[in-house]
Structure formats: C-alpha cells, structure tokens
Backbone:
C-alpha cells in the first residue's frame, strides 16, 4: 500500500480510464508506434492527422512529454502529450480564451497556435502547437550564459507586448520564467499555460524562483502585475544579476523590502548590475515606475516606450540590429542541433 501511495504522489495522480499512466507508459507506447512503422493515424481524426518524428523528443515536464511531429503531413509542430485529461483541459481552456485555436495570426501576438487538441494514441491526450527553436533557457545555455544588452532588451520588449495581449484577454499566466519563454528566429513567444487563470480565477501554483512578491506574501489574488514581476526576475536571471547573498527568492526579497521600507534602494541595487547605462536606466524606470505603487495592471504603453528608446540607443552605439546568434550563419533549431549531435555520437559508437 505504501508503495502504491508513493507512486501516485510521484506521478501526480494521473488516473485515466481506471488505469494509471506516466511518462514511462507514454514513451513505451511511442516506441510501439515507431515499431509499427510510425505512420498510423494517432488522433482518430481524418481532419487532424498527427505524425510523430522518430528520435525527435523535445523534452518532458512533470505532467507531459513534448515531441516533434507533423500536422497533416506538411507542418512541423510540437506535440504536448498528457496522460491526465484534466490537465490538458485546463491548458486548452486558456488557449481558447486567447483565441489560439481559431486566430490564424495568433503567432503575431507572441502566442503559440493550436493546430489540434484531443485524443492521442487511444489512451492519452495531446495539444499540437507551434514548433519553436527552443526556450530562452536553452538559448542562454547555448550562448554560454551571456546575452548581449540588445538581445536582453529586445526579448524583454517582445515579452511585455505579449503580456499586454494576454492581459487584454483577461488571462494571467502565473508562471513566467526562462523555460516558458520561447524563441523562433527573431520572434519571442510565451507558452505553457498549464497554471494560467482566466477572468479573475486564482491558481496558487507557480515556480517559487520567479514567483511575484504577492505569492510570497501569501496574498489571495494574482494580477497582471505579478506576471510583470516574474518577467523582470527572468530578465535579471538571464542578465546575470545575482540573487541576494541570503539566497532568498527574488519575490520573497521584494516582499520583505516592502515591509522594511527598502524597496526603492533594493530595486536600484539590482539594476546596478547592468553595466550599460541605457539598459540600467530602462530597468530602473520600469522597476521604480511599476513596483513602487499599488497598481494591479502594468502601464504597458509606458514600459514599451522605455524599452523601445533603450533598444534604439544600444543599437546605435553597438551597431547590433538583431539577436547575435542570427548573425552567425543563420538560425539552427536548438532542439534539432542537440538531436543532430546525439545522432552523430550514436553513429560514431556504431
């Protein structure tokens, strides 16, 4: 009995159709799929045909496996495979709210397009969405932990523009972090809406490292300003702004500074780590302008104006007009690059 309970806790209680599934089951069934030729209709729908691509696993979350595939035989997509239908329903509800299932131009808003959602490999459930080059965390690692000032500002600006759209659709993401910001060519997207909320509903799950101060204050409500806080913490993270010596989460430290009356000095101290004066000034204006008052919704227009001005100044002085990795022989998919390397190593062994 104890072993069963432990298994349920580890797998997140993914009980479906009277059985318990996990990533292990999904992986086994995917292997069987390829063993049978890898060309079976895995949705049961003639209108929406999905095909998994062999060896093209894109990653795994606590509740899903992400795999590269084809939609209707000609469009590259990412397929997020769930073994718990309830979790898929939670996420697809937000995609509906954002109109990502109907709006053919949704990607211009920085939101993934949903091509299909529903049954998958008979036992499971999946969402087929836009395929990206990788996450912001992936890119940070590939750049050896250093992004240019221009790239930091441009990613920040595009992410803010997407947050503005999300807020206009009455959605709060609740989990902004480098792993949930995606890149494709020169465009920035926000994805993974698994714990997002709609029309004032509340969800108290998050990633503590990037959670807002209100989460750490244990307040009963989360607002668009919380997403902005998490985005600023994300930009500090990829800008190599160190955490406090105490090791406190950024949101918790900000929460404590409110009670101590040291918020302004703390924010300025964090911004000082940006050596470029234009970048530093942009972060100072945004942090002081948005976090020192009791606003629930950020002034997106003002933030975008600040970032646009800073980008122009940095570009004028550095000569940079696009992400630095796009200037070096074009863009290679981060996941594809890693897969190609793994395949090469495997061939070498054989």
Residues:
């Amino acid at each position: 009995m104890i072993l069963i309970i432990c298994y349920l806790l580890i797998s997140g209680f993914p009980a479906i159709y009277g059985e318990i599934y996990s990533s292990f089951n999904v992986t086994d069934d995917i292997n069987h799929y390829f063993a049978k030729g890898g060309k079976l209709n895995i949705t049961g729908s003639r209108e929406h045909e999905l095909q998994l691509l062999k060896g093209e696993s894109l990653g795994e979350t606590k509740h899903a496996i992400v795999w590269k595939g084809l939609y209707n035989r000609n469009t590259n997509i990412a397929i997020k495979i769930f073994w718990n239908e309830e979790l898929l329903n939670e996420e697809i509800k937000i995609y509906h709210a954002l109109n990502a299932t109907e709006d053919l131009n949704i990607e211009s808003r920085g939101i993934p397009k949903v091509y299909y959602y529903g049954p998958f490999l008979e036992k499971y459930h999946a969402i087929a969405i836009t395929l990206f080059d990788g996450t912001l965390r992936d890119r940070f690692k590939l750049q050896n932990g250093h992004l240019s000032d221009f790239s930091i500002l441009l990613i920040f600006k595009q992410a803010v523009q997407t947050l503005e759209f999300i807020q206009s659709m009455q959605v709060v993401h609740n989990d902004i972090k480098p792993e949930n910001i995606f890149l494709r060519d020169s465009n920035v997207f926000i994805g993974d809406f698994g714990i997002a909320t709609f029309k004032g509903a509340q969800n108290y799950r998050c990633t503590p490292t990037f959670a807002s101060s209100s989460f750490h204050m244990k307040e009963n409500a989360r607002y668009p300003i919380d997403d902005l806080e998490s985005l600023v913490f994300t930009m500090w993270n990829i800008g190599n702004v160190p955490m406090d010596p105490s090791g406190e989460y950024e949101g918790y430290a900000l929460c404590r500074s409110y009670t101590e009356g040291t918020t302004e000095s703390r924010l300025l101290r964090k911004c000082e780590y940006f050596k470029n004066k234009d970048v530093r000034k942009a972060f100072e204006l945004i942090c002081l302008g948005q976090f020192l008052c009791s606003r629930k919704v950020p002034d997106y227009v003002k933030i975008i104006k600040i970032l646009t001005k800073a980008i122009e100044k940095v570009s004028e002085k550095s000569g940079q007009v696009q992400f630095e990795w796009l200037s070096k022989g074009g863009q290679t998919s981060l996941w594809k690059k890693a897969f190609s390397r793994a395949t090469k190593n495997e061939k070498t062994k054989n």
Remarks:
- The first strand starts at residue 15 and ends at 16.
- The radius of gyration is 21 Å.
